[in-house]
Specification:
- The protein is mainly β.
- The protein folds into 3 domains: 175 residues, no CATH class; 169 residues, no CATH class; 75 residues, Immunoglobulins (Immunoglobulin-like, Sandwich), CATH 2.60.40.10.
- The chain is 6% helix and 42% strand.
- A hairpin with a 5-residue loop joins strand 23 and strand 24.
- The relative contact order is 0.14.
């Protein structure tokens, strides 16, 4: 009944949202240069009108180390990922490069102190996946190498550790003139990370230990290789659905995909997105959407906006149906984007139900007589599961599973009738004489 009450209040407060072509009703600002990551909850937005859960600057970390369970054997890469802040320091206008991760050819940790960095700048950059959180720069090539080979290390089925494959990586920023050697030594019992980091000349050496147990309900803990600080900068993973952030995306260019830095929206691993194309927000509903679920975390991504040379244009025929951890479905449409000092996105969000959106479905259900003395019969082509009557203040007055309602004891006035059908929740207005 709590769900019906919430939807009723929503339907009362937004009676003309579609007639107005889904006006913007929330926004996210990432600040100058899109320098802040913003974690957003659709459930919070639906309850309070503002879905921002937390914000965190994105220029103070280099490595994102998974503190999730590896979940052997079903999703082992989940806990073995180390992602890289590859857009950090990149500024094309200023001519500065971003942070890069490469693997040294032929180098092995057994010869750590004398690792050959010749030709470093020509080595291929290792990149995080923009389709799943599980595949990271350090695990680039998994699972092609095999389900127990995570590239940086291999799972030992006897002692339950992921042990180093001996690979030596270099994380560096050429413009900022810093270079760090890295060897991921071990992930012991899916509990504690052991990572070795030093300068190329072996100075400023760090033996980093990270216990996953210290970060419950997080996806990653973050590390700054220059300040040697661990940063807990995420909200609990069950508290957010979408992340406004900067990241490297694989963009189509001249027939092939190339990495390109973008500002966009990534989804929580528990968030499912269906991107409907070709219809505006007030033209597509759950009842007539054609989109299928896209499992990629960048299903929303960045292509909803295009830079025209002077400003950003937003495509108004991209409508996202987003299913969240709480099993609700929301409809989201981007309305505007401005870069510069605010990097602000405005958008329309709406808890999507068949009944509140589809006029065809609503018209298939009728109340008669209406106006009425209180004895009302409901006719529908759909199977009716329950009927509720509420006043305009959202108070539940009556609930039944029958296809007629006796509301003769109610005062004269206007009431909301909520009809739960096999197709969804429908709303009708009843006039009591």
């Amino acid at each position: 009944m709590k769900k019906i009450f919430l939807l009723a209040v929503l339907s009362i407060s937004l009676p003309s949202i579609y007639a107005q072509n889904c006006p913007a009703n929330d926004s996210v600002s990432m600040g100058p240069g899109s320098g802040t990551d913003v974690f957003y909850s659709l459930k919070k937005a639906n309850t309070t009108g503002n879905g921002v859960v937390s914000s965190s600057v994105n220029n103070n970390w280099h490595l994102a180390i998974s503190v999730q369970a590896s979940n052997f054997p079903y999703n082992p890469a989940n806990g073995a990922a180390i992602r890289v802040n590859s857009v950090l320091g990149e500024n094309p206008q200023a001519g500065t490069t971003g942070t890069k991760l490469v693997k040294l050819n032929g180098a092995n940790v057994s010869n750590w102190r004398n690792a050959d960095t010749t030709g470093l700048g020509s080595l291929p950059e290792l990149l995080d996946s923009d389709s799943t959180w599980n595949l990271s720069a350090f695990t680039s090539g998994y699972p092609k190498a095999g389900p127990f080979n995570f590239i940086w290390g291999t799972y030992n089925q006897n002692n339950k550790n992921i042990e180093s494959n001996g690979n030596v990586y270099v994380l560096y920023n050429k413009s900022a003139n810093w270079y760090k050697k890295i060897n991921v030594k071990e992930l012991s019992w899916d509990t504690t990370w052991h990572i070795i980091i030093s300068n190329i000349d072996n100075t400023d050496s760090v033996y980093l230990k990270v216990s996953k147990k210290n970060y419950p309900k997080r996806m990653f803990v973050y590390y700054n290789v220059l300040t040697k600080q661990l940063l807990d900068r995420e909200p609990d993973s069950d508290q957010w659905d979408l992340l406004w952030t900067k990241y490297k995306a694989m963009i189509e260019f001249n027939g092939s995909k190339v990495p390109y830095s973008v500002t966009g929206v990534l989804g929580n691993s528990a968030t499912k997105v269906a991107k409907n194309l070709g219809k505006k927000c007030n033209e597509v509903w759950l009842a007539n959407k054609t989109a299928k679920i896209n499992p990629s975390i960048s299903a929303i991504g960045s292509d909803w906006k295009t830079f025209t040379g002077t400003a950003f244009a937003v495509t108004d025929t991209f409508v996202y149906f987003i299913s969240t951890r709480d099993t609700q479905t929301y409809k989201v449409t981007m309305k505007s984007y401005a870069g510069g000092s605010k990097s602000k996105t405005t958008f329309n969000f709406y808890q999507a139900t068949l009944g509140l959106e589809s006029s065809d479905v609503i018209e298939s259900v009728s109340l008669y007589p209406n106006p009425s003395n209180g004895i009302v019969r409901i006719s529908a082509d759909l199977a009716i599961e329950s009927i509720s009557i509420m006043n305009l203040q959202g108070q539940m007055l009556l609930n039944t599973k029958e296809n007629f309602v006796d509301a003769s004891n109610l005062s004269a006035g206007i009431y909301i009738v909520l009809i739960q059908t096999e197709a969804g929740l429908l709303k009708k207005t009843l006039v009591k004489e």
